[in-house]
Structure prediction request, 411 residues.
Amino acid sequence: MQALQFVESVPRYAATKAAGMLSNTAFWSRAACLQLNEVRPAALPGPDWLRVNTRYGGICGTDIGTILLQGSMSLHPYTSLPFTMGHENTGRIADGGDLAHGFDQGQRVVINPLLACEQRGFNDDPCPMCASGRSNLCSRFREGSLSAGMLIGFCRDTGGSWGPEFIAHKSQVIPLPDSVSDEAAVIAEPFAIALNAVLRNPPEDDETVLIMGAGVMGQVTLAAIRATGSKARILMTARHPFQIEMASRLGADEVIKPKRGVGFFHQIAERIGAEVIKPVLGKHIVKGGVDRVYECVGSDSTLDDALRLIRSGGMLVLVGIPKMPSNVDWTPIWFHEIDVHGSFGYAVHEFEGRSRNTMQLAVDLIGEGRADLAPLVTHRFRIADYPDALATATSRGRNNVIRAVFEFDPA
Prediction:
């Protein structure tokens, strides 16, 4: 079968990085680290594993950052090469081992891609983080019965959703009710990330929060705040009309198309009654800013802006993956005692009297009609057309892309 794999080598990496300075197409050329390969189906590591036929595999910002060689090298040890990409997923059960009970062949599912203690064979001796329900912070992503990898889609043993099939431990399998479409299901993974960020850092009803970025992570963060019942005032930045329309649909109180430079600071200050201050040299800062920022972009400029837009004693929640920022003034963290919280993956939270992993909670909320996320899937591609898919996904504004996915035939 054919699947898209990341096959990094030092010469390939160096050549692609250099060529990529001229054109993004170098990152999916024949010489790139991303290759469409003929691969063997992954073997089931044990009797409690299942095989899943892929329906959709999402093309997310993390995947794009990996392909464009923009990710932090600090995450490199938590992968194993070559890996078939794709962690956002939905599909159907194909078959399973003798102990993978409770699932029917052909059953529609979404897979929690996290490869923590239970999936690695440490179910009887979990690490402290897994034992506390925070398996997203597992200390054994490089140990046990699997090769290194935090997620399906970054581990060479499991395959990924950028191929027609992959494997999963029975503990990762979440059945889909009829009320959850395949399009909504493939968004469950980023929605679960947002739910983890919001439930760990919930806004009060009387707060004004700012969501920076209107890509998928910004949109699902907005959806997570509303789906969990918050009445906070939500301001959101968006650059394109299709993003503004979606954010309004999902419950933003006001969507702001940011002006350049200090104009953006004035846009925020005018809406919250704050003051824009000009230092002798350097960028402006907002005095009396918003209570909380959910930063969903991860660029140098948005991180630096976010710190200047938060009130004293406020909070910055990092939902987007920071790409080794080099031009961020961290002084406001010290001077305004801003709390900075990272948020990675999915974890167990108490919500409405039940303890659930946010992947399961994501499916539940979608199924209950509390988050309409299927419209976020805007573009579909066959795996053989991956150059077009990646060219489209890396030019979102020009192509009106919210989420592009790889589409496979129904099993």
User: Anything to note?
Assistant: Residues 94 and 200 are 35 Å apart (CA to CA). The first helix runs from residue 10 to 19.
